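Subject: Sanity check before I submit

Could someone independently write out the structure tokens for this chain? I want to compare against mine line by line before I put it in a report. The sequence has 78 residues.
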Amino acid sequence: MATGLAPNVSSSEIKAKVENGFARYANLENRKIHVDVKDGVVTLNGNVATYTERHEAEQAAWASPGVVDVANQLIVDD
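---
Independent answer below. Compare away.
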């Protein structure tokens, strides 16, 4: 649950900002990463090709206003 420290940003706004943030990373732009947001907690699901992409997706999520936590559940394809 949000601690009151994060700006008052709706879940839909956070989701849009996270998804738009993926465009900054060429490797993530065309990935099918599912973003779910509840009470400022972003959950990332899907598959990525490398651990670098997994980390970049998490960084993009943290960079979005209103995010209080990120649950990175992305799976790296081997």
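---
OP: Matches mine. For the report I'm noting this point. Residues 3 and 68 are 8 Å apart (CA to CA).
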